[in-house]
Amino acid sequence: MKVWKYGDDINTDMLFPGKYTYTAATAEEIKPHLLEDLDPEFSGNVHEGDILFVGPNFGCGSSREQPVLGLKAVGVQAIVAKGFARIFYRAAINQGLLLIECPEAVDAYKDGDEVKFDATAGTIEVAGKAYNFPKLPPEILEIRDAGGLLPYTMQKLKEETRS
């Protein structure tokens, strides 16, 4: 697992350039352009299980789904931030991408530190020191575990029809 650390006010155009909005619709078309204007090395070097540590207002800007879809598709397991833009936060829930708001952990992280987290318990450990963040509601964790809102909803519908 690698941690990628970025600054404040990372907007959706920095995550996925708007010039591709109408030409890249699938995850495979989106992935090569992730963070291309912010960090040209990201899309070629990100791996399944990597984590982003970011400043406040992450995901501000437009309500396009491509940034979240792309981050999920490359296997980012979580984004730890000082704060998230509301629309991005909701889009991440819909895609099953785990978002953790913990400013103290972001400030504490130094390149190379080991990171562990427990979303259920609301704890994140950076270089052996534990930080708490608000526990996520069980429904949010269930959506994440199902792979997003659509698979979660389909699962619930199947359960209801069996009852």
Name some characteristics of this structure:
4-stranded parallel beta sheet, single chain, 7 strands, globular, 3-stranded antiparallel beta sheet, 163 residues, alpha/beta, 8 helices, Aconitase, domain 4
Write down the domain tally: 1
Instruction: Assign the CATH architecture.
Output: Alpha-Beta Barrel
What is the terminal-to-terminal distance?
41 Å
Q: Tell me the β content.
A: 15-25%
Which shape, going by the Cα principal axes? globular
Rg (C-alpha, Å): 16 Å
Strand order of the largest sheet: 1-2-3-4
The count of helical stretches stands at 8
**SSE order, one letter for each helix or strand:** EHHHEHEHEHEEEHH
CATH topology: Aconitase, domain 4
Look at the structure and give the mean pLDDT: 95
How many β-strand stretches? 7
How would you name the CATH homologous superfamily? Answer: Aconitase, domain 4
- Pairing-aware structural class of the strands and helices? alpha/beta
What does this structure look like?
The protein has 163 residues and is of the alpha/beta class. It has one domain: Alpha-Beta Barrel (Aconitase, domain 4), CATH 3.20.19. It has 8 helices and 7 strands. The protein has helices at residues 12-15, 27-30, 42-45, 66-73, 86-95, 103-108, 138-146, 149-162; strands spanning 3-5, 51-54, 78-81, 98-101, 115-118, 123-126, 129-132. It has a 4-stranded parallel sheet with strand order 1-2-3-4. The chain has a 3-stranded antiparallel sheet with strand order 5-6-7. The radius of gyration is 16 Å and the shape is globular. The model has no long low-confidence stretch (mean pLDDT 95).
